[in-house]
Design brief:
single chain, 164 residues, mainly alpha, elongated
């Protein structure tokens, strides 16, 4: 198996296992606590609102919003790692049909792998910090994924034109 195809297939499987492992860890050790925090802060916020305790209600609803934000990111991270891993595997299967040089195909494969790891990692880091580094990692990862996919599409279109 050539190096580019190996990046797609072997590293895609590794990334899928990473995403599954992270999802399993989250489901077993963190999700129930997160859901409990989401539910209790929402109930307390509505209860305080019903009792006309405006400041307390606002505080609880703010806690709800932050807990829900973190929960959504945790679930997104695990599903994006797995989804992008599946994309790596599919492109690994179609690798030989891409009408580019081996050098370009390897570069695109590495670019996609790097982006597929960095994008969800940046999203995960946003649960701890809303700063520029986590956002920058997520943006850089998504740009790498998009750019590599555009390159692969160009290669596939180019190969289909030469077959005719």
């Amino acid at each position: 198996m050539n190096p580019g195809k190996r990046v797609h297939i072997v590293r895609g499987i590794a990334l899928a296992l990473w995403g599954i492992s992270y999802g399993l860890w989250y489901a077993v050790f963190a999700e129930h606590q997160a859901l409990d925090g989401i539910g209790s802060s929402l109930a307390a916020g509505f209860g305080d609102a019903a009792q006309r305790k405006g400041e307390s209600s606002a505080t609880h609803l703010s806690q709800y919003r932050e807990a829900k934000y973190i929960y959504d990111r945790q679930v997104d991270v695990h599903s994006h790692w797995i989804g992008l891993a599946m994309l790596l595997l599919i492109l690994g299967i179609a690798y030989d049909r891409v009408g580019l040089s081996e050098k370009w195909k390897l570069l695109l494969a590495i670019e996609l792998l790097l982006g597929a790891f960095l994008f969800p990692l940046g999203v995960l880091l946003q649960t701890w910090s809303h700063g520029l580094l986590p956002r920058g990692l997520a943006i850089a990862g998504s740009v790498l994924v998009i750019a590599s996919l555009v390159g692969m599409i160009i290669g596939l279109v180019r190969a289909s034109k030469t077959e005719k």
